[in-house]
Write a structure and sequence with these properties.
The complex is a heterodimer. Chain A is mostly helical. Chain A is built from 15 helices and no strands. Chain B is 32% helix and 24% strand. Chain B contains 8 helices and 9 strands. The chains are: A mainly alpha, B alpha/beta. Bound molecules: adenosine-5'-triphosphate (ATP) and magnesium ion.
């Protein structure tokens, strides 16, 4: 198939469009995760979604993605709730709570998945696609779910922009302003869970967190304003989504989810190295210049 | 209900993980005065401010804010500047305008008068040239001034400042002291954590000496006696309960 044929192919277009949208949503949400130093929350939630998917299939017997994603959402939310409440109620630190909840949920998920695989109609069900993702199976209906959830997420973020900004930067000051930080925290976490869940079918539970972190980390390198960072992060996420999906369509052997993640990571690595001001190369150049200056002073003496 | 005091604290006890940091604290902050909170490191000064502002839960006791012109007072807060991550993508302007977010409703952006006020307060703190600077390239003193400007934009009746003089140079210290006097002239109340014993009597009207409990409070000259100071700073640095 050549590129022009691909561009006219309806199924391919749906996949590319859906993946781009997904990248944009996770890029936007990733901005806040990265700035709040909760980058790994997405990882925990996505792994924790697996038992929900398997349980939904075992209970209902359908492979309908809406049902499976609902199961994923429920178990993702449970995991997030467990992580936050154990941090709040005990002395356990965030990373320890996250690692414990994530691995036990993922373990349970793997066991349930094995049980599900033994059922007669599971063989072609592609439940395994939830682990590494399978964008090429994306239907118009899945893209529609992404549009609706993405639109809702964007609307909430825009509506609460000021509040989220103060909350993320300076929680004490936000509290003092009378901003309900508990609720903002809850909303942001819920949005992140939602963003992760709509992505796992495409990118897979193992790699989904990269879609939150990589575009945001890349965007941080290029700008100094929160809204610019959020916009750039969404743009980078969108580009990665489209590029990965396109690569998958161009060469059918290539798995789409990992390609999307590779595209996002490439953008992140490029940004970390080459961005002006914050990039590694620029810093090396600065140090070099400073050393030269020192040397020339030394000669003068 | 009370004209003389801006806020009354009664029997305030605060604990982190069941270990009491402040016990049975009674404090009365005089309205329209500049009050210093003093005590050794770990005495619970930050804890006191945070508990009064409801930023951390208290175990027991009450904090009564007396009304100003028949309405609850607006409180301005300057946190210790280390309390935030300065690598956040924002400019000084972004930080300072956060002060008016409470007056704005949902989704509304700062209006013209809010922007003018923010600029005015930046000028007052000598920071107008830094308005477009990224906050991660500010010096410690500049961070402090940005935070104070943000609190001023809140147009509060009572200002709580956690170590406003920390890491600032002589000129900035003078600016802040002048600001205190100006606020006082406008009838505002200022409460600030302060460490320098030699300047306390110059800068402040009242002093509260604490070390896990209130040692002494009152007029700064009568409170800062040798005896009270040695009681407050005795031996340890706030280690004992
Ligand atoms: N989040 C916390 N969890 C547990 N203990 C804490 C916490 N914050 C403070 N403490 C303890 O409470 C005590 C009082 O701390 P606080 O920060 O109020 O002191 P401070 O008077 O402000 O000191 P400094 O002059 O160093 O700012 C200290 O012993 C400290 O170890
Ligand atoms: Mg302190």
């Amino acid at each position: 198939m050549n590129i022009f044929e691909l561009l006219c192919d309806h199924t391919v277009l749906v996949v590319v469009f859906g993946s781009a949208l997904l990248g944009m949503v996770s890029g936007l949400l990733g901005t806040f995760s990265v700035l709040r130093r909760q980058s790994l929350l997405g990882d925990g939630v996505s792994h924790a979604a697996l038992p929900g998917v398997a349980a939904a299939f075992l209970l209902t017997g359908t492979k309908d993605s809406g049902t499976l994603l609902l199961g994923a959402l429920l178990s993702g939310l449970t995991a997030a709730g467990l992580i936050f409440s154990s941090v709040k109620k005990s002395k356990v630190k965030f990373d320890a709570a996250l690692a414990t909840v994530m691995s036990s949920f993922f373990g349970l998920g793997t066991v349930l998945l094995t049980c599900a695989q033994k059922l007669p109609n599971a063989t072609q069900a592609g439940l395994h696609s939830f682990i590494y993702g399978q964008a090429s199976s994306m239907l118009e209906r899945d893209a529609l779910v992404t549009i609706i959830c993405g639109g809702a997420i964007l609307a909430v973020v825009l509506l609460l922009w000021k509040e989220i900004k103060v909350f993320v930067f300076d929680r004490d000051f936000a509290l003092q302003l009378g901003i309900p930080c508990g609720r903002i925290n809850l909303i942001l976490s819920f949005l992140t869970v939602l963003g992760v869940i709509i992505g796992i079918q495409t990118v897979g539970v193992v790699l989904m967190s990269a879609m939150l972190i990589a575009p945001a980390a890349a965007a941080r390198q290029w700008c100094d304003k929160l809204w610019l960072m959020a916009a750039l992060s969404a743009l980078f996420g969108g580009i990665s989504g489209a590029a990965g999906a396109f690569a998958g369509a161009l060469a059918p052997g290539i798995p789409t989810g990992p390609s999307i993640v590779i595209a996002a990571s490439a953008l992140a690595v490029f940004s970390l190295l080459f961005a002006p001001k914050r990039g590694v190369l620029y810093r090396i150049y600065l140090r070099h210049k400073a050393m030269k200056k020192e040397e020339s002073y030394g000669c003068g003496n | 209900m009370n004209e003389e005091y801006a806020v009354n604290v009664r029997g305030l006890t605060v604990a982190y993980d069941s270990r009491a940091v402040l016990s049975d604290v009674d404090i009365d902050i005089k309205r329209g005065k500049i009050t210093a909170i003093m005590g050794p490191n770990g005495a619970g000064k930050t804890t006191l401010l945070k508990a009064m502002l409801k930023l951390i839960p208290k175990s027991c006791g009450s904090v009564i804010w007396n009304e100003v012109d028949g309405r609850p007072p607006v409180i301005g807060y300057v946190p210790q500047s280390e309390s935030v991550d300065w690598d956040f993508p924002a400019t000084v302007w972004d930080v300072v305008t956060m002060g008016c977010y409470k007056r704005l409703g949902w989704i509304k952006r700062p209006k013209k008068e809010d922007r003018e006020l923010s600029l005015q307060m930046l000028k007052k703190m000598g920071m107008e040239k830094c308005a477009d600077r990224q906050i991660n390239c500010l010096s410690g003193g500049q961070q402090q001034r940005a935070f104070i400007a943000r609190a001023l934009v809140q147009q509060a009746d009572i200002y709580f400042m956690d170590e406003p003089f920390k890491g600032v140079d002589v000129a900035t210290e003078k600016t802040i002291v002048e600001l205190f006097r100006e606020l006082k002239k406008e009838g505002k109340t200022v409460v600030a954590v302060h460490h320098d014993l030699s300047t306390a009597a110059d800068y402040f009207d009242e002093a509260v000496l604490i070390n896990r409990r209130v040692i002494m409070q009152g007029n700064v000259k009568s409170a800062l006696t040798q005896e009270n100071l040695s009681l407050t700073y005795r031996g340890t640095t706030g280690g004992e309960p």
